[in-house]
Amino acid sequence: MSTLTINIPDSLVGQLQQFSVDQGITVDQLLSSAAAEKLSTLMTVEHLRERGGHGDRAAYLRFLESAADAPPVPGDEL
User: Fold this and answer.
1) What is the pLDDT of residues 55-69, one digit of tens each?
2) What is the mean pLDDT of the chain?
3) 27-52 vs 10-23: helix axis angle to the nearest 10?
4) Which top-rank group of organisms is this from (predicted)?
């Protein structure tokens, strides 16, 4: 484990403390969980952007053109 010192507005500290009490967890647990969730979201977005950069729009459009012109499956209609 590491220790990290951060500055947080007093009003937010109060809310964090109250929410932690309500949830039966420590502020450390709440902040660790929140940081992990945020980091996971940011990393997912970055991963999707990277994967999207490998796409070939021309190949995608050719694929769409080759698809059969069929009605949508029941329940998939617009």
Assistant:
1) 999 999 999 999 888
2) 93
3) 100
4) Bacteria
DSSP 72: P
Domain range annotation of the chain: 18-66
Q: Do the beta carbons of residue 16 and residue 30 sit within 8 Å? A: yes
Distance CA 67, CA 64 (A): 5
Q: Distances from the Cα of 3 to the Cαs of 6, 14, 16, 46, 78, in angstroms?
A: 10, 21, 18, 27, 53
- Helix, strand, coil % in the chain, rounded to nearest 5: 65, 0, 35
DSSP states of 6-25: ----HHHHHHHHHHHHHHT-
Identity of the amino acid at 52: G
Residue tagged 């929140």 (tokens): 34
